[in-house]
Write a structure and sequence with these properties.
One of its GO terms (molecular function) is N-methyltransferase activity. This is Histamine N-methyltransferase isoform X2. It comes from Pantherophis guttatus (Corn snake). With 297 residues, the protein is of the alpha/beta class. It has a single domain, classed as Rossmann fold (3-Layer(aba) Sandwich). The protein has 13 helices and 12 strands. The N and C termini lie far apart (50 Å). 38% of the residues are buried. Bound molecules: S-adenosylmethionine. The site of S-adenosylmethionine has 18 residues, from helix 5.
Length: 297
């Protein structure tokens, strides 16, 4: 059997992602950042503070790759509590129809979103870019975020430059990606060339974004969000959870049964090493640290 990219089977990808969320502190560390740090970063935007204190009652938020909306809704709830009474117009760019449906279900279930108006765009960031460039509707956003999505664009620097250009003066663009110091970056460096090729996902980390920003002159701040993932099940032969985690780690469908034995053994041995995982008792925790990068207009 040949190895196939995880992205060739969307429902399998979603299944692995759900196991990853259950076994990692991915969402907890984002929520921590959203609740403790984000409000002060956004409210330090002079244009926003000035317009709200001048009686303006609307702000515009753009979510790029919003997925099924869990993190977006946390951000919006936080903004709503920061700016009570202000209408928050939220546009969501998301190419996957199933994700948009899940997002709409989350909105329907949430009880306190009455001041938030949603518009979903079923398209990629590039399709949105081409459409908006044609319509010349630029410079209207008070806050834009791209959370765990820049892996999926063809041209990361051009995408950042385009969305940065849509911000109002003083507004902020938030990017969250795996940290260059995480085990993801090490795993991709070593094993990327031996895993199934796909043109849908770039092996990029926050280090690549920071390098691009350093060369571009854009001003930014970077925050480390500590996170880990319990990968102990990967070391139990036949464990379904372990197999799904291995698929997620290697971005491969059914890695355990399709990878050449030498590759599988080497990778599993590496995952136990301290460069990749911290051992606590009989458990192994993979370093899933993220970086939040805030770029100012
Ligand atoms: C890992 S998920 C992150 C979802 C959400 N932001 C979160 O953190 O929970 C990445 C999302 O980006 C979307 N995506 C993939 N390629 C994209 C593209 N070219 N433009 C915009 N979104 C994209 C996927 O459909 C998916 O919903």
């Amino acid at each position: 059997m040949t190895m196939r990219s995880l992205f060739s089977n969307h429902s399998h990808y979603v299944e692995t992602f759900q196991v990853f969320l259950k076994k990692s502190t991915e969402h907890q560390c984002m929520l921590d950042f959203i609740h403790k740090k984000l409000p002060q970063l956004i409210s330090s935007c002079p244009e926003l503070v000035e317009s709200i204190s001048n009686g303006k009652t609307e702000i515009n938020v753009l979510s790029v790759g919003g997925g099924s909306g869990e993190i977006d809704l946390e951000i919006l709830a936080r903004l709503q509590s920061e700016y009570p009474g202000v209408i928050i117009h939220t546009d969501v760019i998301e190419p996957n129809a199933e994700q948009i449906n899940s997002y709409k279900e989350c909105v329907a279930k949430a009880s306190d979103l009455k001041n938030i108006k949603f518009t979903w765009h079923k398209e990629t960031s590039l399709e949105y870019e081409n459409r908006i460039k044609d319509s010349k509707e630029m410079g209207k956003w008070n806050f834009i975020h791209m959370i765990q999505m820049l892996y999926y664009v063809k041209d990361m620097p051009a995408t950042i430059r385009f969305f940065h250009g849509l911000l109002k003066p003083g507004a902020k663009l938030l990017i969250i990606l795996v940290s260059g110091r995480s085990s993801w970056a090490k795993l991709w460096r070593k094993y990327g060339p031996r895993l199934p090729p796909n043109d849908l996902c770039l092996y990029i980390s926050s280090a690549d974004v920071e390098e691009m920003l350093d060369g571009s002159g854009l001003k930014y701040q970077s925050y480390e969000l500590l996170s880990d993932m319990d990968i102990t099940d990967c070391f139990t032969e036949g464990s379904k959870t372990g197999e799904l985690l291995l698929d997620f780690l290697t971005e491969t469908c059914n890695f355990s049964n399709t990878a050449p034995l030498d590759l599988k053994n080497e990778l599993i041995e590496d995952l136990k090493k301290p460069e990749y995982s911290e051992r606590r008792g009989d458990k192994y925790f993979f370093n899933n640290t993220l970086n939040a990068i805030i770029i100012e207009h």
